[in-house]
Amino acid sequence: MRVEQENIELNGQVLVLRNAEEEDAEQLIEYLKTVSGETKFLVKEPEELTMTVEEERQFIAHQNESPETVMLLGILDGEHVGNCSLMRLMQSRYNHRASIAIALYQNYTGRGIGKRMLQKMFQIAEAMGIEQLELEVAEDNDKAVSLYQSLGFQIYGTFPDNMKYKDGTYANVYWMMKKLSASAHN
User: Fold this and answer.
1) What is the bridge-based pairing of β-strands 132-138 and 97-104?
2) What would the pLDDT profile of 29-77 be if each residue is shown by its tens digit?
3) 173 - beta bridge partners?
4) For 42-53, what is each residue's pLDDT tens digit?
5) For 155-167, b where at least 16 C-beta lie within 10 A, e where not — what string?
6) How many Å apart are CA 25 and CA 35, to the nearest integer?
């Protein structure tokens, strides 16, 4: 889904939130590989990211054409800092729900960027009539859990041993959910 670009003043800098475009494909592949290597909290290992530039272009085009998905890039003073995406669940009994995901380059975390990106997604989700947003987050990702809770997400369950790392250790993952005001309209 295409959304209107938004420019946000953030600590004396300009944070641009915009749709990904097909010409961003090569940069986005590198971003995915980098952020996957910077933290253990994401789902994939860098070597698992094997899509071609053409496949990424097609993925971006699909995201922009679909009325049920949104992918936003965060650009801070001209530098790509991260992505946030929303995916509505398509089954009729689940259509009031959407999953949300975000990842920033580690050197841009803790600056309020993720919070602003998520708040923008809340607005988009409400405009789409989505009533609840859901996400999964590693239990020991304290900063992310704290951010999500500050934005109204609550922990509703834990998936034990949800992720298994290369070293053989496991991570529990929280299932978190936030009710949106769109639910008050129904």
Assistant:
1) parallel
2) 999 999 999 999 999 999 999 999 999 999 999 999 999 999 999 999 9
3) 138, 159
4) 999 999 999 999
5) eeeeeeebbeeee
6) 15
Closest CA to 8 of 153, 114, 133: 114
| Number of residues in the chain | 186
Supply the pTM of this predicted model. Answer: 0.94
**Locate tokens 């809770």: which residue?**
149
User: What is the token pair recorded at 143?
Assistant: 């900063």
**CA angle, 114 then 141 then 8, to 5°:** 5
How is residue 22 annotated by DSSP?
Answer: G
Sheet architecture: strand order including 132-138? 6-10, 13-19, 69-76, 79-88, 97-104, 132-138, 170-179, 154-164
Residue entry with tokens 């299932």: 175
Over the chain (186 residues), the average pLDDT of each successive run of 10 is 96 97 97 96 94 97 96 97 97 96 97 97 96 97 97 98 96 98 52
How many helices (H) and strands (E) would you count in the chain?
4, 8
Residue 91: count other Cβ atoms within 10 Å of its Cβ: 7
